[in-house]
Design goal:
- The chain has 612 residues and is an alpha/beta fold.
- Helices cover 23% and strands 28% of the residues.
- It contains 13 helices and 32 strands.
- β15 and β16 form a beta hairpin.
- The longest helix has 22 residues.
Length: 612
């Protein structure tokens, strides 16, 4: 049986419409963005007009826009969400990213639904259930290994989506209650207080400080650019970049970098994979992920469920950007710093380093003196051999602040003149084919016209098209004005053809015979409305405890965080290893007046954070 290549999707984040357009221009096959409410990032909401504008631009390239409606929904909000979804469907949104299963029982248009990462998809059983509900794309938990992804692929047919780059939540997504319990701000409602990025003291059962003032729950950033081929082979077809709060420069750079990285894999396996959208991207810069905001990079758990003791996953010195490594300090005398580096620096660059006191610090370059010598705006306290990073790359950021990419659709043209009819046929790489004819009384040319006609047809500035090939009526003289008007009219027809023929994904049907993997739900399963209760009950769940956000009380057994990341392993004191005694068995985290208990589940190699 002939097997068609799998569409590989690069999915980019967008805080607003301008960033969405930039993401498409720099190579994204799809963009996810928030609507006016219920979008899991309260600071990244967009009007319907802005979302429509993004849709119109994306669809020209066969790219897609996914709207995030991925927060918990209360009973009194269900009708508002229903209206919002209908509006999003009307303006051309291609799919909704959903967390709350109550949405499935609303009176919805036939819009495709994607299961959000907040659905906490970690097992084949959960994946099979979500696909049975009618979700047409499933977002994997960030913590999964390649082996676990392969197991999910074996029991599902829906496209699998995985995060490939960006910030990591330390807790399983959808199962972090610390912000809700301690601050009254629910991460499941788009209001995360990011308590994982705070500095903590690690203390033992007697109150003794073991580690002081470190960001022990602040993870490095994910970067799977060198694991793309393995992820595709495991079953991932949508590669998602995190960052709906990131600025436009970040999105441009990271999207362009992953576009190039994914294309290398696709080009190496053309019979297996193909791009999910069309168009050729030309850049004015060389993408480099280390030159954008990052906390250092990790593969997280992709390679193994229980990584080696001491594997670096957390950025415990700072939750801020580490940036690009430049080299080591040779000397520092007041405002004058000399670095052993081959990188080109610019006046205004920002540097980061750990100072003599062991504190993460920074400085601004006032002037580049040459030979690695920098004059800083303020005195620095740096010892010889200290690693120096660049957190603000002025030259690179200035370049990205300008128009930095063009994306064009290849078009072939055929110009004919027969029987008094001048006809132009255009066929583009999206599969559109149009012909426009006009009555015209033309005469044979007295000199060759081929080059002039091709040049006129190639005047496609102001459009998304570029002429790839042209067959022209070189023996006929066609006035330039007439040929230009014919070209413009036919291009308009090509635009309309793309709108008319655009494929629209539809919501899939629900199979109510597939049971939920368990018969009882805890508050961590996030049931916040009566419709969600109905969904679970219809799939065999007998006991349903409501979400914490609805007022369910908490106690010392309530998990505030549930993580695959283990702090003991990060600090080289895993209870299964010979260095287990490097830390006491009883451990707590303290920040300000807040005290949290650490519990390690060594059978599952997981950690839970609870109240004492």
């Amino acid at each position: 049986m002939l097997r068609h290549p799998i569409d590989i999707e690069l999915l980019a984040p967008a805080r607003d419409a301008d960033i969405a357009l930039a993401a498409i221009d720099h190579g994204a096959d799809a963009v996810y963005m928030g609507a006016s409410h219920h979008g899991a990032r309260s600071d990244a909401a967009n009007s319907l007009d802005d979302v429509r504008h993004a849709c119109d631009h994306a669809h020209r390239y066969g790219a897609k826009i996914y709207a995030t409606v991925n927060t918990l929904v209360y009973d009194n909000e269900l009708k508002d969400v229903e209206r919002l979804i209908c509006d999003l469907y009307q303006i051309g949104v291609d799919a909704l990213i959903v967390q709350d299963l109550g949405v499935l029982r609303l009176d919805l248009p036939p819009i495709a639904l994607h299961a959000s990462t907040q659905c906490d998809l970690r097992t084949p059983e959960k994946a099979r259930f979500l696909e049975a509900l009618g979700f047409s794309q499933l977002v994997m938990a960030r913590e999964l290994t390649l082996e676990e992804i392969r197991a999910i692929r074996q029991v599902t047919t829906a496209p699998l989506e995985a995060f490939v780059h960006g910030a990591l939540c330390v807790s399983y997504s959808g199962r972090c209650a610390i912000s809700q319990v301690l601050k009254g701000r629910s991460a499941n409602r788009g209001e995360c207080a990011q308590l994982c990025r705070l500095p903590y003291d690690l203390i033992d059962g007697k109150g003794r400080v073991l580690v002081e003032g470190k960001h022990l729950l602040s993870l490095c950033d994910l970067a799977q650019h060198d694991r793309l081929e393995q992820m595709m082979a495991a079953g991932i077809s949508s590669f998602k970049i995190e960052g709906r709060l990131k600025d436009i420069s970040y999105v441009k750079n990271v999207v362009a970098y992953y576009r190039q990285s994914i294309d290398k894999v696709i080009d190496s396996h053309p019979d297996c994979y193909r791009r999910a959208s069309k168009g050729t991207v030309e850049l004015t810069f060389q993408p480099a992920i280390e030159r954008s905001f990052n906390r250092g990079f990790t593969h997280y758990f992709l390679d193994e469920r229980q990584p080696a003791d001491g594997t670096i996953m957390a950025s415990i010195d700072t939750p801020k950007s580490q940036g690009e490594y430049l080299g080591k300090a040779i000397s520092c005398n007041g405002n004058t710093l000399k670095i052993d580096t081959h990188k080109t620096l610019t006046n205004g660059d920002g540097l980061s380093f750990t100072d003599k006191d062991g504190q993460f610090s920074g400085a601004r370059v006032n002037r580049v003196m040459g030979d690695g010598i920098l004059l800083l705006r303020e005195a620095a306290n740096i010892t010889r051999g200290t690693r120096i990073y660049r957190t603000a790359d002025k030259a690179f950021n200035d370049l990205l602040a300008k128009p930095s990419a063009t994306r064009t659709i290849a078009v072939d043209a055929e110009l004919r003149y027969t029987g008094g009819m001048l006809a132009l046929t255009l066929e583009d790489e999206r599969g559109n084919h149009v012909t426009h004819s006009i009555v015209s009384d033309l005469q044979p040319a007295t000199k060759p016209q081929t080059e002039r006609q091709i040049a006129e047809l190639g005047k496609l500035g102001g459009t998304i098209y570029r002429l790839r090939d042209a067959q022209v009526a070189g023996d006929t003289f066609i006035p330039a004005s007439q040929l230009a008007q014919l070209r413009r009219d036919t291009i308009e027809m090509l635009d309309r053809a793309q709108v008319i023929t655009r494929h629209v994904d539809r919501r899939k049907g629900e199979d109510k015979s597939i049971p939920y993997p368990t018969v009882s739900l805890t508050p961590a399963d996030n049931v916040a409305n009566h419709l969600a209760r109905e969904v679970y009950a219809e799939h065999g769940v007998k006991e349903i405890m409501p979400a914490l956000e609805t007022g369910t009380p908490t106690d010392a057994t309530t998990p505030l965080m549930h993580t695959r990341y283990c702090l003991r392993r990060q600090l080289g004191a895993c209870l299964k290893d010979r260095n287990s005694n490097a830390l006491p068995r009883e451990l707590y985290l303290r920040t300000g007046k807040t005290l949290l208990r650490i519990t390690c589940d060594c059978n599952r190699c997981e950690m839970k954070i609870t109240k004492p």
